[in-house]
Amino acid sequence: MNWHRMATVLRTDLKQLLQARDFWVPMMALGAIFFLIIPTVLLLAISSIGDVEVVKNVSNALDLLPQQAQQQIQGDSPEARTAYALAVYLFAPVAVVVPLTISTAVGAATIVGERERGTGEFLAHSPADVREIYLGKLAASLIPGYFTTIAGFGAYSLIVNLIVGPQVGGWFFPTPQWWVLMFWVVPPFLAFTLSLVLRLSARVKSTAAAQQASGLVSLPLILVAYSQSSGALFGAAVSGWVTGALAWVIALFSLSRGMKAVSRNRLLGVADES
Amino acid sequence: MTALDRLTLAVPREQITVLLGPNGAGKTTAIRVITGALTPTEGTVSTFGLDPRADGAQVRSRCGVVSAKPALYDRLSGYDNLLYSARLYEVDPQLIEPRIREAAQRFAIEYALGQQVGGYSTGMKTRLALARSVLHRPELLLFDEPTSGLDPESSQAVLDLIRDMTSDGRTVVMCTHLLAEAEGLADHVVVLDQGTDLIAGSPSALTRRYWPGAVVRLEAEHPERLDTIASWDGVIDYVRGDIATVTLDDISRVPDMIRHLVEEEVRLRRVEPHVPTLEDLYFAVRREASP
Asked: Could you give the CA distance from residue A213 to residue B110 in angstroms, rounded to a whole number?
């Protein structure tokens, strides 16, 4: 395993992605919508409409949450408690949807794209090992999604603290569970999904087919990731760590299996020996 | 589907070997097998004395390949394409920049290095692919239809560059189905069909094998009066259409043959010694091979 070559594949794929404005502009827009626009509008609306019936109803609904989660909700007024709950719990899927969407879109095209452009021939004749190519491409698919998420999460934290913070006694976000979610739970979910997507990308005949198939794979995973991440936020402090640990085990197993999906035959687009 | 079948291929060092054959003959597969990009289901491959199956990375790092599609990254600049290759082939980091400049200059693409490859013409892409193939100083260069899609002028320029590459001790294997392209370029020819080699050797040796005598073409005012030649001493073969093609056992018989024809009052319009081309050879081989 030559890490230098792997880094070369990674760097070149990222460079190509940066050149593809038609790709990253919509992706940035997606991140902005989920992390900035929707939370800002919702939180501002809740904070400014005051003590109206709908906010009270939402606040009452919070009583249905697990006891442990209820204890964590801060704020004295209904609107403050509602805004806090929305900020901390409702937007959990955002942290999962955005990286999975971006990374899946990148990953789906990565192997089959090489084949379609004819550049698979160049890679197949190069001294690079297929493991180096696989890991380089995996990282190149993972980084844009995760980077967008971390950047978006930073912006989201700022907005949440500025809008909701004054009502709940100061800056409160990210909560400890959110730190665990972002840096321990989301990465393995992302890696697991990408390992499946890269396998698909190596097997299908066109980028369009890869994207269709990746959508089918990633949608259920988004749901699973959402439920798990929400559970991690609501549950005991240890549940996030446990969810993340399990996700890491599954992801590492899937990554090692996925490595076998990339072969020189598949880069060349000829029938595989297997 | 069997792409290669009982192919025996030996490539002489520091020479240009041309794999000639129609589309689907197995030329591209042969190149892929040489570098170990594809593994044959049977048989043995030895490149630089190494088995590409076991020592693939080592074999491939000593080969430079230009495929039929230039296989370049359109979104990257010409420079970045070369840089990517130099890094993958682990060129010494300190040598990368001068090697890129040198290769780009050699293939006259230096002026466009900063542009995105997507905006290159086909000729520019081929020259960039050629430049990329030599960055790591490979011992063996493998070119798969390197002039496909090029205009005649660009094709000639590319062929000149390929010819130039053997001058510094490199071995070249080139696939083509264009006979005119191989003519004058090939030191060694291998004719392939349906995955197998029909014949191999230097063009002159193969020509001598198929046409051991001298071939002369004759045109006369009354062509039928040339038929008398068929029974003369030293005539191996005589074929008459509008022009008669005579194969003699020795070129020195030509003056006597002309003198006899003049004495018999045959009014000759043209006497032309004929040197068989690679095209003649190719079709002769294919004719012989066909059932």
From this structure: 42
What is the tens place of the pLDDT at every residue in B228-276?
888 888 888 888 888 898 988 888 888 888 998 898 888 999 998 887 7
Which sign does the torsion angle of CA A166, A168, A172, A175 carry? negative
Query: Judging by beta carbons within 10 Å of its beta carbon (0-12, 13-18, 19+), is residue A41 exposed, middle or buried?
Result: exposed
Residues B61, A127: C-beta atoms closer than 8 Å: yes
Count: domains in chain A: 1
Q: Is residue A84 part of a domain?
A: yes
- The predicted complex's ipTM stands at 0.81
* CATH number listed for the domain at residues B212-275: 3.30.70.980
The beta-carbon neighbor of A268 closest among B32, B74, B116 is B32
Q: Out of B32, B76, B142, name the one closest to residue A19 (CB).
A: B76
Provide the residue range defining the domain that includes A93. Answer: 3-268
Q: What is the DSSP letter of B47?
A: B
Q: Give yes or no on whether B16-207 and B212-275 have one common fold.
A: no
Query: Could you report the per-residue pLDDT of A264-273, keeping only the tens digit for each?
Result: 888 888 765 4
Residues in chain B: 291
The correct CATH number of B16-207 out of 3.40.50.170, 3.30.450.40, 3.40.50.300, 3.90.1720.10 is 3.40.50.300
CB contact under 8 A, A119 and B85: no
DSSP-derived 3-state class of residue B143: strand
Phi, psi of B244 (to 5 degrees): -90, 135
Spans of all domains in chain B: 16-207, 212-275
CB contact under 8 Å between A117 and B74, yes or no, is: yes
What pTM did the predictor assign?
0.81
The nearest CA of chain B is from the CA of A269 a distance in Å of 11
Nearest CA in chain B to A12: B84
